[in-house]
């Protein structure tokens, strides 16, 4: 498993409904690049809450080796149960 700093899910606010195709494309291209880095490589990933900086939430992005989906989910659940992610266990 590897942990890397969480990446923003999006680089800018989403375009409003009814926006022209150029505005939508300008939003979609960089967003997909940020959201699919591990997915392009076929690696499982999860992002967990990791606190706040200046009142803004930050995340920790966990990426596992190929076919380690279950192990990665177990790690996420174990971290949640231990209170590591700043989220109360359910």
Polypeptide structure, described:
This protein has three helices and three strands, in the order E-H-H-E-E-H. It has 90 residues and is α+β, with helices and mostly antiparallel strands. It has one domain (2-81). The protein has a three-stranded antiparallel beta sheet. The mean pLDDT is 78.
Task: Give a short synopsis of this structure.
This protein is of the alpha+beta class. It has helices spanning 21-35, 37-41, 69-81, and strands at residues 2-5, 45-53, 56-63.
Main sheet? 3 strands, antiparallel
The H-and-E topology, N to C, reads as EHHEEH
Across the major sheet, the strand order is 1-3-2
Uncertain segments: none
Number of E strands: 3
**Distance, first to last CA:** 24 Å
Specify the overall morphology: flat
Helix fraction by DSSP (H/I, runs of at least 4):
25-40%
What descriptors fit this protein?
3 helices; 23% strand; alpha+beta; 90 residues; 3 strands; 3-stranded antiparallel beta sheet; flat
Indicate the topology.
Layout: E1 2-5, H1 21-35, H2 37-41, E2 45-53, E3 56-63, H3 69-81
Antiparallel strand pairs: 1-3, 2-3
């Amino acid at each position: 498993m590897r942990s890397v700093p969480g990446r923003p899910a999006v680089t800018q606010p989403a375009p409003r409904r009814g926006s022209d195709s150029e505005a939508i494309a300008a939003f979609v291209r960089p967003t997909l690049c940020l959201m699919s880095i591990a997915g392009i490589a076929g690696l499982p990933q999860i992002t967990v809450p990791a606190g706040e900086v200046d009142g803004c939430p930050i995340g920790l992005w966990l990426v596992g080796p190929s076919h380690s989906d279950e192990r990665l989910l177990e790690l996420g659940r174990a971290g949640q149960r231990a209170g590591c992610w700043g989220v109360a266990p359910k």
